[in-house]
Sequence to fold (928 residues):
Amino acid sequence: MLEELKERVYKANMELPEKGLILYTWGNVSGIDREKGLIVIKPSGVEYDVMKASDMVVVDMDGRVVEGSLNPSSDTATHIELYKAFEEVGGIVHTHSTWATIWSQSGRDIKAYGTTHADYFYGPIPCTRKMTAEEIEGEYEKETGRVIVETYRERNLNPLYVPGVLVNSHGPFTWGKSPEEAVHNSVVLEEIGRMAASMEMFNENTKSMQQELLDKHFLRKHGANAYYGQKK
Amino acid sequence: MLEELKERVYKANMELPEKGLILYTWGNVSGIDREKGLIVIKPSGVEYDVMKASDMVVVDMDGRVVEGSLNPSSDTATHIELYKAFEEVGGIVHTHSTWATIWSQSGRDIKAYGTTHADYFYGPIPCTRKMTAEEIEGEYEKETGRVIVETYRERNLNPLYVPGVLVNSHGPFTWGKSPEEAVHNSVVLEEIGRMAASMEMFNENTKSMQQELLDKHFLRKHGANAYYGQKK
Amino acid sequence: MLEELKERVYKANMELPEKGLILYTWGNVSGIDREKGLIVIKPSGVEYDVMKASDMVVVDMDGRVVEGSLNPSSDTATHIELYKAFEEVGGIVHTHSTWATIWSQSGRDIKAYGTTHADYFYGPIPCTRKMTAEEIEGEYEKETGRVIVETYRERNLNPLYVPGVLVNSHGPFTWGKSPEEAVHNSVVLEEIGRMAASMEMFNENTKSMQQELLDKHFLRKHGANAYYGQKK
Amino acid sequence: MLEELKERVYKANMELPEKGLILYTWGNVSGIDREKGLIVIKPSGVEYDVMKASDMVVVDMDGRVVEGSLNPSSDTATHIELYKAFEEVGGIVHTHSTWATIWSQSGRDIKAYGTTHADYFYGPIPCTRKMTAEEIEGEYEKETGRVIVETYRERNLNPLYVPGVLVNSHGPFTWGKSPEEAVHNSVVLEEIGRMAASMEMFNENTKSMQQELLDKHFLRKHGANAYYGQKK
Fold:
């Protein structure tokens, strides 16, 4: 069942330690088959060096395990909320990567300071509000997804134009049209976060970049008039 | 004698350089056989690339060498004090890992800033008080253990809920139910310390995370109602 | 056509990920054949692990593709402006390497703080002014080159004595007599940027080094009376 | 001539890039044969990946090349001054390692903040005064050695108790009884410098450690009553 997607989600998960984004089992990647309405996700707490593609768990949009003998990631309910709300998203990643997590712990957005940021994120990378005690003590993982969605709705953000978020006091979620793209955006967010944090450490002037330059860089890679890379 | 424990303690010691926690011989791991009342510990000042499992030294709870031709770690007396006071602990690690040592040198606790911390440490990671001249000039290594134990007693901390400490002006000790878990906690402490220090470098607001979120994350992984990972 | 230069430019491009200067395709190296008036440059957006020497694109000084089936780097027009203005330059590199980019985002020059800097850069490493909306919305990549050239003209800088620049809110360009030297200078700029930024993070006194020492170090390696290295 | 010492000095030089202390040719190690009054040192500006033990240059105490076809390191005169003044020293290292160089550029001593420091350096790691224009424009490399020696004389420091120095606006020199020990101390200085700098970045209280603890740690590893390591 969904063997190809399992293989891709498995490989995307294996990229997390390879790219230095996680220690131990501190991350998870999922992918979705929109036609079947099924999600493939990493099992919870399984070591990467023994994990196999066949360990990937298939769940439906209500979080019920459809196939697989292991528990799905404890963050599955967060992934589901994001897939429900962000209809163009095909893959989601959660990590505790160092710099993105530092930003989450600071409770602040990452401002767009330069073209590295602008090549991928069309404006600040938002940090969610703190969750309420009720949200934390209730369906916590589902509420985590809801607070992310609320952030995008309230700020009127296009999830594919801002393909990553900082969950307050927690860590990042990133996404993309595919699991592979979601991992790519996770690597990029980590580097952008490292640059922005380090910049603030020794500069008093921490103004965002010019809007014109943000537009130029994002739109030369994304959207109808993109001209970066090879014709496809 | 205790061949299996020696093998495990040896492997746990070898993990320290592999995980980037030490330079040269700047660390040591021990394990305890509670039934026999014997501790297996790394020899003092032996290079990791020539060390063998059979070099591990067996000492009793008074620090007397029971087996082994090498001197035990100079920190042996500290380990013994911790094993005596923390009865559920099965393995102990000492390193001078970069960020944990930086925190020790700052003489401050590491506040709980996010869920990465909360997944492993149930509250701040304590820094011990400075030792007195008498303690330093007396049975220094034993007194180091005593000041750690004092810290846990005075703050009423459960050693398995806060499985690591910062010795003031020195470096970290971590522990766990086994030598392997103690090393795992040492890796985690280093990453938490790096995140917390870096966060403080560019943020004015350095308030601890919400208590509800700390509770949620620690208790979903630890304690009676844990639901992270696979059923065991 | 230009097979040897293509091979060299290819190898110089491959050095960027090897030296840790780039993630993904975030960089490009070119080389010039001054006699033929032709530039060899990396194709746009091609993954490094599949790129071959034969993928290098040959363009003329007007940016027209003379040979090659792929699009040249989107930064080609910047390279051309630099080759036109800096006549002794034989190779150019653009990256988003971490510390040089952080400095670009800070919008400030890197002051000469020590001999590591002075061994390669004869004075501050300049950061360009912000580009105007007209420049950004017009021939952006060409204007990027022009603003670099303007910086060197206005400050009366010798491009071979200051073989690298920080483009404001963007990232570094470096150059040299050859593509290999340009990459070397890119590695050096990254390390100098890291040292200078880190130094400013914990010091109030951030005065430049003495002029005499700057002179001594630059001139013992460069110019008529150099005595560093082996006779050639 | 001095084949064994050449082999050792060569290997000690090769350790510099292996330990991450240098980029390109930014360092040099020498060793001395006190009986013969001859120094073996790395040649100037030779790439590490082609350097051989037979490339090591033998010079006498006046800096004259006694054997070898290559120019000796441009820092040879500094090494000679140190060997002349510090009679127990058997090996010397110069690098531009990142954190030690950052401290040199800051122009400040590294205070003793913890036991990692105290295990190797008995007090602050000194930074030399700025050199005068006359010193820089005269016999610069020799004067560099002289200003180091002046620092130790004026502060009444034992070179083997403080086996490394920061040359103002330049970088570190370290030494030891042998070339191998000098490299070891260079690795240690880099780590101590990283810890101390990072600590100052996020702490207001930057007081040195207690003298008693400094005494305890240095003297349990060094001097007549040392008890760290194995009996020799």
Observations:
- Residues 2 and 36 of chain A are 10 Å apart (CA to CA).
- The longest helix of chain A spans residues 179-202.
- The mean pLDDT of chain A is 96.
- Chain A touches chain B at residues 23-24, 26, 43-46, 70-71, 74, 96, 98-99, 101-102, 104-108, 130-131, 133, 136-137, 140, 169-171, 197-198, 200-201 (CB under 8 Å).
